[in-house]
Amino acid sequence: MVVATVRLTEQEYQKIKRLVERGQYLSVSDFIRTAVREHLNKYE
Fold this sequence. Notes:
By secondary structure, the chain is mainly alpha-helical.
């Protein structure tokens, strides 16, 4: 697995964090990996 760094606005980060706190994702990283995977699948 490759490590990539992303910059998010505070608002974006807080929205993701709330989803994690609600149990919809395991972590912020899990959310980002899922979002990237789903976006890439649109192009396959």
